[in-house]
Structures are given as structure tokens and as C-alpha cells.
Design brief:
The structure is a homodimer of 154-residue chains. With 154 residues, the first copy, chain A, is an alpha/beta fold. Chain A is built from seven helices and five strands. In chain A, strands 2-1-3-4-5 form a five-stranded mixed sheet, sandwiched between helices. In chain A, helix 4 links the parallel strand 3 and strand 4. The longest helix of chain A has 18 residues. At the A-B interface, helix 2, helix 4 and helix 6 of A face helix 2, helix 4 and helix 6 of B.
Chain lengths: 154, 154
């Protein structure tokens, strides 16, 4: 079996985040990968859903938890274009997903879009029982450029 | 206009949390109050929705943000039977709701149901821009008894 890189999946997630913008939403997207295969994808939909909870990762976890058990989800990888906020980190935790890979850090996003909720995935998972592994910085530069373009019109 | 107490609203929320158990879900419920009137209510529905994100407050914020602007929500009070978890605290923050009143603390819940995610509302709102006011301990004993009954069969 060919092994795809983290960059391969993140690039797909970044393309999906562009689609979210085309839809009229914010530039965020997430993928769920199992055995090197994308099995679910989700975009930010806060504007089109008129629902502020509809972040990409929340949408993904909501779908994933309806389809898979936490035992199954523990074997999957969640790719997201930006480090999950407190809401989405909590959702991912409750779902049982154990691996999170992101491109831009939430601190990068704060610097570009403005700092609101300083509590990000690191703080949410601190002292948690059996927390997920979190890896950041995959195609970080592409995600940062995407945010700069969207939030700062650069 | 008659002024209802925090206890009055919390008692209604606790009754709703009992209904959540009757439905087959966990004992949590939340209300949104504006000008002394309950305008929205939500129960935990993780089992009946087969969706782990369906905590009471997430359900409430999801509905509320579809109906009201963040400016309107800033004038409302969210009552919840237990201090919001990281996911729900994040959702409440993004909605613009500025007042949260709870009965049992998340630490109480951890002691009864088991400690999973140690990050609760205090940690989520720490260092946030313009965080909500959070008041705990309203009918705390009733909420603790409800949790003991549910999680420990006491």
C-alpha cells in the first residue's frame, strides 16, 4: 500500500477550506483519515448554517460520532487546517479521536484574525485522562497564507 | 414585574435534566432566559442523537445562535445544571452569551462520574477577550444528588 504523507492529506484539507470560503464561510476544514483513506470531511459552515457552533472540527466530530464508535475513532487521524479551538478540542476529546494533526497554530490565527479565546488544544488537553496526541505545523505556511488572504485581504 | 430567583430557573433546569434521563440520555439540561422569561431550553441528547457533541449547552447554543444575534445573546442568561465542559464553554463564548449560571461544578461531576477532561469553564475563559461572567453553586446540592443518583445509583 502506498503511504500518503501528512502533507498530502493536509493539502486536501486546505483545498476544502478554500471551498468553505467559496460557500460564504470561514477558511477552516477538517478530514478524518482511517488506514490512509479519507472517510469523512467537513468544512466550517457557521454562516450558511447560521449556527456559530458549526466549526469544521465540530461538524466532523458530529458526523463521525454518529457513524463510528469511540474505539473505532481511536484508530483514526483528524487533520485540520488550524489548531482546534476550545470547543472543537473538547468535542474531539469526547469523541475518542486520539490523533490530531493541524497546519497553522491557534496562536498564528490569533495573530492574524484577532485574539479572542486564548484557550486552545494544549490547554484543553492539559491534565486530561488519556489525551489525544497533537502534531502541528504540517503545511503551516500554506495555512497562514490562507488566513492572511481571508482575514487581512493580503 | 415579579422577579424570579436564580433558584427558580435552576429548579426548572434540574427538572429538565431528569427528563433527559427519562429520554435515555445523561442528566444535564440548560435554559436561556431573557427578561425573566425562559425563551429556549435544551437537554443532553448524546444517546438519542447518537452524537457525542449533543451536550445540553451545545444544543442550546446551536439553537440560540440560529435565532438571535450575539448582541441579543449578550443580554441573556444561560442556566445549566452543571458547569460547562471545555466544548460547551467554547460554544457559549463564540455565541456571545455573557452570563452563565450553574448548579454543580465540573469538579463535583468529576468526583462523581470520573475525571476525564480537567479543563472546565474557568480554564477556557482565562485570558479570553471579554469573557462571560460565571456564577456557580445555585441549587448545587440538588444537582449533586441528581448526579449521584444517575452515575452511582445512590
Amino acid at each position: 500500500m502506498h503511504t500518503y504523507s501528512h502533507e498530502y492529506f493536509m493539502d486536501q484539507a486546505l483545498q476544502l477550506a478554500n471551498e468553505a470560503v467559496d460557500d460564504g464561510n470561514h477558511p477552516f476544514a477538517a478530514l478524518l483519515v482511517h488506514n490512509q483513506e479519507i472517510i469523512l470531511e467537513a468544512k466550517n459552515s457557521i454562516h450558511t448554517s447560521k449556527d456559530i457552533t458549526r466549526h469544521a472540527e465540530l461538524n466532523l466530530v458530529s458526523k463521525a460520532s454518529q457513524l463510528y464508535t469511540s474505539t473505532q475513532l481511536a484508530e483514526m487521524i483528524l487533520y485540520t487546517t488550524t489548531e482546534p479551538c476550545a470547543m472543537c478540542s473538547g468535542a474531539i476529546y469526547w469523541s475518542g479521536i486520539k490523533t490530531i494533526i493541524y497546519a497553522a497554530s491557534a496562536t498564528h490565527l490569533d495573530q492574524i484574525a484577532g485574539k479572542f479565546l486564548a484557550c486552545h488544544s494544549t490547554q484543553v488537553f492539559k491534565n486530561a485522562l488519556n489525551p489525544p496526541i497533537v502534531i502541528g505545523g504540517i503545511l503551516e505556511h500554506k495555512a497562514i497564507l490562507q488566513h492572511q488572504k481571508y482575514w487581512l485581504n493580503l
